[in-house]
């Protein structure tokens, strides 16, 4: 019985790191990618873990950074502002690849990074940031909120918009295969990544 050939990164640590960043970059550029919407983990003020889905907007392998956006009124923005350590995780069931990223997040609200991200945002995204009341507010009914029209959202949404940069400090790449799983991890020391194979 024939089997698909093993991928080039299967027993190559450097190629595994390159594949990790390639998949994250693909997640930025392709809505259908499993890595377009990773789960983000933070910790709230009481030390409880919090988990939600975000949309990956940038992945820079050279800098070792990721970016997503959020509403500055949201719980996630408050949690990151209080405790910037966070983690992201994505899983592609078809490719049988899991990627985990741990790092330190920075909120960008009124700087050039936020301005550039806002300028590049689609109209439908801008509308969400102009909604009232803010995210997580208790409502008397499911439809008891208001969204602005796309033109008004340019002005109304910008004060609530926040770009979140994550400087990765640890990476974990898991590939599942019946012939033997492969898992690799890397830790950052300054600009240098040090990696090793890990037991799956």
TrEMBL record:
Keywords: Flavoprotein, FMN, Oxidoreductase. Its cofactor is FMN. InterPro entries: Pyridox_Oxase, Pyridox_Oxase_Alr4036_FMN-bd, Split_barrel_FMN-bd. It comes from the Bacteria. Residues 27-108 form the Pyridoxamine 5'-phosphate oxidase Alr4036 family FMN-binding domain. This is Pyridoxine/pyridoxamine 5'-phosphate oxidase. The keyword Metal-binding does not apply. The gene is pdxH_2.
């Amino acid at each position: 019985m024939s089997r698909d050939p093993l991928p080039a990164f299967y027993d190559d640590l450097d190629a595994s790191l390159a594949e990790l960043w390639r998949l994250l970059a693909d997640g930025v550029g392709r809505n259908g990618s499993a890595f377009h919407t990773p789960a983000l983990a933070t910790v709230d003020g009481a030390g409880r873990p919090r988990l939600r889905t975000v949309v990956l907007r940038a992945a820079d392998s050279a800098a070792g950074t990721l970016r997503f956006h959020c509403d500055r009124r949201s719980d996630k923005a408050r949690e990151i502002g209080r405790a910037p350590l966070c983690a992201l995780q994505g899983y592609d069931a078809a490719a049988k690849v899991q990627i985990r990223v741990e790092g330190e997040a920075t909120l960008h609200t009124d700087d050039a990074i936020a301005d550039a991200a806002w300028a590049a945002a689609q109209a439908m995204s801008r509308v969400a940031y102009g909604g009232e009341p803010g995210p997580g507010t208790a409502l008397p009914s499911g439809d008891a909120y208001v969204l602005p029209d796309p033109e008004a959202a340019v002005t109304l949404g910008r004060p609530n918009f926040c770009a979140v940069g994550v400087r990765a400090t640890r990476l974990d790449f898991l590939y599942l295969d019946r012939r033997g799983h492969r898992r690799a991890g890397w830790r950052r020391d300054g600009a240098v990544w040090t990696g090793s194979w890990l037991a799956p």
